[in-house]
Amino acid sequence: MESLSDTKWDVVISGTGLQQSLLALALSRSGKNILHIDPNQYYGEAEAALSLQEVKEWAAEHQSSSANSAFSNVQVTKDGQGPASPRAYSLALAPNLFTQRQN
C-alpha cells in the first residue's frame, strides 16, 4: 500500500460531517482519488454522537464563543451517578426530530 504522501490526490476534503461525506462519496464514484480527513478525534462534526465522557471533552474545547463555530458557550452538567458503562448511550450534537404515525 502506498503511503499518503506518495499518493496523488485529486481532492482533499477536511471534515467528516454529512455534507463532506456525501461530497466525498460523489467524487469517489466519479473516479476521483479522495483524501478525506478530519481535525477532530471523532467522525461526524456537528452531526456526531458522543459518549458522555466524549461530550465533556468536546464541551471543554467549545467553552468560548467563536464566529466560525456552530456551537458556543457549551456546558455539560450531570445529576447523579449516571450509567455504569460510559457507552450505555450516546448524545447527539445535532438536534433531531423523530416523527411518528398513529393509527
Automatic annotation (TrEMBL):
A GO molecular function annotation here is: GDP-dissociation inhibitor activity
Listed under GO cellular component are: cytosol; nucleus; Rab-protein geranylgeranyltransferase complex
According to the lineage, what is the superkingdom?
A: Eukaryota
**Positions of the region Disordered?**
65-87
Q: Which Gene3D superfamilies match?
A: FAD/NAD(P)-binding domain
Any one of the GO BP annotations: small GTPase-mediated signal transduction
Q: Give the compositionally biased regions (Polar residues).
A: 65-78
The entry assigns this protein to a family as follows: Belongs to the Rab GDI family.
**Protein name, please?**
Rab proteins geranylgeranyltransferase component A
